[in-house]
């Protein structure tokens, strides 16, 4: 009964005994008769529930597709590569990398602009350790 209620709520846990893989599946459990592609279908075959769930496993977009017997709580299922969602995730990653590179270029440009705006004399004084008119703690500050 717990498994049955979990499926109706849109979640369940399954195990692939042969490989020792445990999955917590989350899916759309709405029982809308107008949806032709249900993710949780109790009506397809008596005594069984057919489940589809989409997730990312080890960085790969996959789809679980299978059925489970409601009395024995066993069944059959497989994981398939989900190309459509993988392309979507790849696009998100590319946009994120592009934003990161843009911020990095902006930072380098502002750093370069700051460096170029300072007079060369002050930079040379800083390199030699000679106090200039800038703010900071120098040797001359501690003399009385």
Automatic annotation (TrEMBL):
Recorded coiled-coil stretches: 90-117
Localization per Swiss-Prot or TrEMBL: Nucleus
Any one Gene Ontology molecular-function term assigned to this protein's record: transcription coactivator activity
Annotated transmembrane regions: none
GO cellular component terms, A-Z: core-binding factor complex
Signal peptide from the UniProt entry: none
Gene Ontology BP term (one): regulation of transcription by RNA polymerase II
Keyword Nucleus on entry: yes
Domain of life: Eukaryota
Keywords: Coiled coil, Nucleus
Family, per entry: Belongs to the CBF-beta family.
Name by which UniProt lists this protein: Protein big brother
Protein's gene: Bgb
């Amino acid at each position: 009964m717990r498994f049955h209620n979990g499926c109706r709520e849109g979640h369940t846990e399954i195990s692939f005994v042969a490989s020792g893989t445990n999955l917590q599946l989350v899916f759309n459990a709405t029982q809308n008769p107008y949806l032709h592609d249900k993710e949780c279908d109790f009506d397809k075959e008596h005594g069984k529930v057919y489940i589809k769930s989409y997730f990312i496993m080890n960085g790969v977009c996959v789809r679980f597709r299978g059925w489970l017997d409601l009395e024995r709580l066993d069944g059959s299922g497989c994981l398939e590569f989900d190309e459509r969602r993988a392309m979507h995730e790849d696009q998100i990653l590319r946009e994120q990398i592009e934003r990161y590179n843009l911020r990095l270029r902006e930072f380098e440009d502002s750093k370069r602009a700051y460096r170029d705006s300072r007079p060369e004399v002050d930079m040379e004084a800083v390199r030699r350790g000679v106090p200039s008119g800038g703010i900071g703690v120098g040797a001359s500050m501690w003399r009385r």
